[in-house]
Each structure stands twice: as structure tokens, then as C-alpha cells.
Amino acid sequence: MAKQRWWKKIVISMVVLLGGWALYLSSKQIERNHRIQEEVSSLETEAIKIRRENETLSEKIQYFSSDDFREQEAKKKLGLKKSEETVVIIKPQPEQNKEGENSSVMKQQTSTDIGKENVPNYEKWWKIFF
Question: Which residues contact 89 (CB under 8 A, 6 or more apart)?
């Protein structure tokens, strides 16, 4: 009887140890699967981003290889024109202030006024009277 109890205790303890070991291994496997799943989702997100970039780059390549783009760049950078086109150059007008004065004239006046403000007051009076 005592021998049977002893064997039962050994068998129960072995079953508990094997069960604990199986739980430990399965928890490690679950953790590993979770990390792999996170990595897969991040790589899928990156792949989607790269596909979008490729689409925009292919659209740009298609646009840059078009005749419209070449014509536009030739006009803009090289100053070329088609034989049936007429080129008109319009010079921008100086900006107008609220009073209608030229901004360049106003800038000159303010710069001379600033120079006068640096002169002490007694020198201004001296220039007025003498």
C-alpha cells in the first residue's frame, strides 16, 4: 500500500511537471507568434506605403516624359516658342500704397526720415535758425 502511494505521488508529480513544462512551451510559442504577427503587420503597412510611392513616381515619370511637359520646360527655361505663337512680355508694376504713392518712393522717404531722426533735436533747431 505504501508502495502504491509512493508511485502515485511520483506519477502525479511527473504529470504536473510535464503539464507545467507544456504550459511554459505553449506560452513561449504564443509570445513568438504574437511578435511575428506584429512584424508581419508592420511589413504590410510598409509595403502599402512603398506601393503608393511607386505609383506616384510612375505618374511623375509618365508626366515628365510627356510632350506637354517638354514643351512647357522649353518655353519656361529656354525661352522657346512655337512658330505660330506670339510672345508678350508684361513688366510688373510697382506696388501701390493706400494713398496711391509708389512703394519705392515711400521706401526712399522713410529711409531719409530715419536718417533725420538720428540727428539730435538741438541740431535741428540750429539748422532752422542759422
Answer: none
